[in-house]
Amino acid sequence: MKLFIDSANLEEIKTAASWGILDGCTTNPTLAAKNGVTDFLSIAKQILSLVPGPVSLEVLSQDYAGMTREGIALAKLGKNAVVKLPTTIEGLKACRALTNKKISVNMTLVFSALQALLVAKAGATYVSPFVGRLDDAGHDGNEVVQEIIEIYDNYGFKTKILYASVRSPLHVKQAALMGCDIATCPFSVLEKLVQHPLTDTGLSKFLSDWKKSGLKPLV
Ligand code: E4P
C-alpha cells in the first residue's frame, strides 16, 4: 500500500520525504489555510518538487467551467500534479473533461459507495473516501471502503482507492488489510506508524548490554 502525507506544511512534507517511505501527498484548502498559505500555486510547486510521487491539488471553483480551467492550470505545475475535485455533478463533469485530456484526477469528499461508483465511471484516477469524517458522524467508514472495493472488483474499475481522513495508525492498518491502494495520513499519524514501546525498551537493553560488554564499535 502506498503512503501519502496529508499536509500543506513544507517542513512536514520534507521530513516525511526524508524517511524514504513517502509515495505522494494530498492537500486541501483547509490544510493550506491552517499553514497560513496565501499563494497556493507557489507552495504547490514546492510540494511537487519535494514529493517523489503524485501530489493532489484541489480546485476552488464549484462550477464545471471553473473547475476545468483551474484543473488545467494546476496540472501544468508539474508532471506529478493530480487535480482534486469535489464529488458533485459539476465535479463529475470536470473529472470527465480533465481525464479526457489525460490529466489525473482525485475525486474528494466521497462518503458513499454510490459516489465512488460514479467517480470511477467518470474516469477518476483516485477516489478518496473520507473514513475519519464518516466515523466522526457515527457511521462506519471502513464499511463504505469495503463496499467500494467490492464494487470496483465486480466491474474491474481501475480507479485507485485512496483511504482518506485518517485519524490513527489503526485506520492505516485497516486500509492495508482491506487492500486499499493508498492511505493518506497526517504527519502525526505517519510518525506513530514506526513507534512501539517494545522497540524502545529492546533498543535501550541492546545499548546497555553492549556498553557493559566492552564490545568495540563495528566501524
Ligand atoms: C484527503 O485528501 C483530505 O485532504 C483529508 O484526508 C481530509 O481529512 P480530514 O477529515 O482530517 O480533514
Automatic annotation (TrEMBL):
<dbReference type="InterPro" id="IPR033919">
    <property type="entry name" value="TSA/FSA_arc/bac"/>
</dbReference>
<dbReference type="Pfam" id="PF00923">
    <property type="entry name" value="TAL_FSA"/>
</dbReference>
<dbReference type="InterPro" id="IPR004731">
    <property type="entry name" value="Transaldolase_3B/F6P_aldolase"/>
</dbReference>
<keyword id="KW-0704">Schiff base</keyword>
<keyword id="KW-0963">Cytoplasm</keyword>
<protein>
    <submittedName>
        <fullName>Fructose-6-phosphate aldolase</fullName>
    </submittedName>
</protein>
<dbReference type="GO" id="GO:0005737">
    <property type="term" value="C:cytoplasm"/>
</dbReference>
<dbReference type="GO" id="GO:0016832">
    <property type="term" value="F:aldehyde-lyase activity"/>
</dbReference>
<dbReference type="InterPro" id="IPR013785">
    <property type="entry name" value="Aldolase_TIM"/>
</dbReference>
<dbReference type="GO" id="GO:0005975">
    <property type="term" value="P:carbohydrate metabolic process"/>
</dbReference>
<dbReference type="InterPro" id="IPR018225">
    <property type="entry name" value="Transaldolase_AS"/>
</dbReference>
<dbReference type="InterPro" id="IPR001585">
    <property type="entry name" value="TAL/FSA"/>
</dbReference>
